[in-house]
Amino acid sequence: MSSVAKRKSLVASAPSASVGTKRLRQVEHDNNMTQPAFPPEELRRIYLSFKRLEKWCHMPFFATTVTGCFVRVVTGASLSDPPHCVAEIVSVMESKNIYQFGSKRTNLVFKLRHASKDQIVTLRSASNQEFTSSELMQWKLAMMAAGKKVPTTEMISTKEKTIQQALDHTFTQGDFDFIVAQKNRFRAAPLNVAKRKLLLLDKQSAARKHGDDGMVKQIQDELTTLNQETKPLSQLRTTERCLKIPFPPIVKSRKRPAPKATTEDYHIMDPFTRRRTRPIMVTSLKKESIRTAVNSEMDLRYGPGFLPENED
């Protein structure tokens, strides 16, 4: 090909290249116009932590309040990916598996959305720390790359009011009944086994009257499971087990009669033994009877060998 032909081909291709560049710039400009100026830090206003989710998981307003909020979850995809990401709670669903969520038990799961990716995770995947600046920027870039719209300031303000209403919620008797029912539903073992058995037996008898064989079988299986769980506890309460428990010795009464002091006790002069300390009134030792009585008393108190002084 000659140089003249090459020049003609370059001139012919130049307008098409410039037109493609203009179209690409126009698309980027349109995308930037559809995405409003939104600071990612605004998401912290509708952020829910692990502790707050744990506190609300049995509340009647849980699903309506948390839907539309954002959580910080663990990605766990690979070492190259960030350990946490910002995700929006799309919906709250129930699963078949019951798991431990902090100090409570539940079967609720979240359907989360990060840009164009949806994933179902448990509630315990939520982090207790707030978003970092890098995580918020990564979320914004992912939303722009996927062509998704970010929440507006009005949407965030509305959801923030919903969260505040949940914090200031006034509980009624119906709310308390709902919370108790949820806790009993996911409880690992009933608090009162005997009461639980009576309720199951009443339900079983009612199901038999209505001819519901499926319900009767289901209740019987639950009774069998309950008996197996409480069997070790019942064995500890048997008579043979109780007889093997050593009982503490019977403590003797502290009200004991005072020991009678003897001559040897007075002679030893034990400080913890009671002794007679009443003074002796002596009027005259001239009489033989008085002198004999005084000497015997002295011998009793201070031991034998006491010699009275000569009165002459």
From TrEMBL:
Kindly list the GO CC terms recorded for this protein.
Cdc73/Paf1 complex
Identify the keywords attached in UniProt to this record, alphabetized: Nucleus, Transcription, Transcription regulation
Domain (Plus3): give its ranges.
37-168
The superkingdom of the source organism is Eukaryota
The main location class comes to nucleus
Q: Where in the cell is it found?
A: Nucleus
User: Which GO terms fall under molecular function for this chain's record?
Assistant: DNA binding; RNA polymerase II C-terminal domain phosphoserine binding
* Cited PROSITE patterns: PLUS3
**SUPFAM superfamilies for this protein:** Plus3-like (SSF159042)
Q: Which SMART domains match?
A: Plus3 (SM00719)
The record ties this protein, via PANTHER family, to: RNA POLYMERASE-ASSOCIATED PROTEIN RTF1 HOMOLOG (PTHR13115:SF8)
Q: What is this protein called?
A: Plus3 domain-containing protein
Name its species: Pleuronectes platessa (European plaice)
